[in-house]
């Protein structure tokens, strides 16, 4: 790996390297870990925890082959498969504020009518609270149905707007997470957080590839950060095409 350029390629997972909550294809996995990793340093940055990222990368042994895995926006940080550091939203914000957010969210969601509602509406993670109006226990068909419904009725965006109003000045950020949820985290704990972990590596360039780059999306901040070269992608196939062009891979 000594011939690699001093460049870091960072990839979002859902919608960028995989279809939402699906497993990466063998073709793309081989491309990243053989062709791309031979040229540049490669890393993953996701709002999900390590278990979910590993599942989508087709196993923990595959995830460990990436130079960096930044879970939960980088608040939990792995390098070459080893946990390096982690922070806690509970320690940072305290129980009282977190319960206010959870109670408000559960109350708000209880008044929404959707095509389907299932279980696991609030998921507590190290770095964030993930809130899901349809419930993360939904089936793939129910997920797809919610995505269509949300695109018409802006369920999540209205939820985010209400959260911003209710918790104005609290030091919290609210963003659309993946396809079906809302992420709640301390301001500054977006995906740019992961850049702190690589500052001492002095990469000549850091390229970021993500699909939720619009304002309010969870890739927005890192995509627009002056420390990165942002690439907006629309699918795993588009990601591969853009990487091929940027690295001039034959």
TrEMBL record:
Pathway membership, UniProt: Nucleotide-sugar biosynthesis; GDP-alpha-D-mannose biosynthesis; alpha-D-mannose 1-phosphate from D-fructose 6-phosphate: step 2/2
Compartment(s) of residence: Cytoplasm
Transmembrane residue ranges: none
Location of region: Disordered: 227-250
Biological role stated in the UniProt entry: Involved in the synthesis of the GDP-mannose and dolichol-phosphate-mannose required for a number of critical mannosyl transfer reactions.
Protein name per its UniProtKB record: Phosphomannomutase
Key words of the record: Cytoplasm, Isomerase, Magnesium, Metal-binding
Signal peptide: none
Lineage: Eukaryota, Metazoa, Ecdysozoa, Arthropoda, Hexapoda
PANTHER family with a match to the protein in the record: PHOSPHOMANNOMUTASE (PTHR10466:SF0)
Catalytic-site annotation from UniProt: 12 (nucleophile), 14 (proton donor/acceptor)
Family: Belongs to the eukaryotic PMM family.
Superkingdom field: Eukaryota
GO terms, biological process: GDP-mannose biosynthetic process; mannose metabolic process; protein N-linked glycosylation
EC code: 5.4.2.8
Reactions catalysed according to its record: alpha-D-mannose 1-phosphate = D-mannose 6-phosphate
Cofactor(s) required, per the database record: Mg(2+)
Composition bias, Basic and acidic residues: 234-243
